[in-house]
Amino acid sequence: MPLWKIYHPAGAYTEQDKKEFSQRITEIYSAVPIPKFYVVVIFEETPPGSVWVGGDRHDRFVRFKIDQMARTLPGPVIREWWIKAVDEATHPWVKDRGYEWEITIEEPPADLWTLSGERPPPFESVAEKRWIEENQATPYSLAERLPVALSLAPGTHDPGD
User: Fold this and answer.
1) What does the pLDDT look like over 119-159, one tens digit per residue?
2) Could you give the CA distance from residue 113 to residue 68 in angstroms, rounded to a whole number?
3) Which of 27, 29, 58, 153 could bridge across to 53 with cysteines, CB 3.0–4.6 Å?
4) What radius of gyration, in Å, describes the C-alpha atoms of the chain?
């Protein structure tokens, strides 16, 4: 799951802004694809005088703390591409409004994560595909842990090939 904590000045975002912003964040992850319900966004208002940068009060600062348990970013090129995509996705709510901002992404271990008591199914598994379609965490069988495109033996191919 990506968990976004957005620390922002009090009153910076309306309810509609929060809805649109969280929908945009969800879009970038659902393109992976991962289930939409994996994406959690928490808006945390910071009262005036609560944020200090470099020892100076900074009331126009937004901080993004992102935990990504569902996927890890393999290698520096993908990491650079992803942080740029995340940064650009935030621009309408920070850069375009005159805020300064900072983003950090952490990748906690996926095996220490559950959703409503269920361990997330493996990437590209039958169960994950079902979770994406149903948009909810539900129990799954051992067989559903298998990849959607399963090849059990070398040289095995789809008869339609």
Assistant:
1) 999 988 999 999 999 999 999 999 999 998 876 656 555 55
2) 11
3) 58
4) 19
What pLDDT was estimated at residue 1?
A: 84
DSSP string, the chain: -EEEEEEEETTSS-HHHHHHHHHHHHHHHHTS---GGG-EEEEEEE-TT--EETTEE-SSEEEEEEEE-S----SHHHHHHHHHHHHHHHGGGTGGGT-EEEEEEE---GGG--BTTBPPPPTTBHHHHHHHHHTS-----SGGGSBSS---STT---TT-
Name the nearest CA neighbour of 101 among 149, 46, 161. 46
Residue with the two structure tokens 């033996």: 153
**Can you give the pTM of this predicted structure?**
0.86
Residue 42 zone, left/alpha/beta (φ > 0; ψ -120 to 50; rest)? beta
CA atoms of 66 and 2, how far apart (whole Å): 7
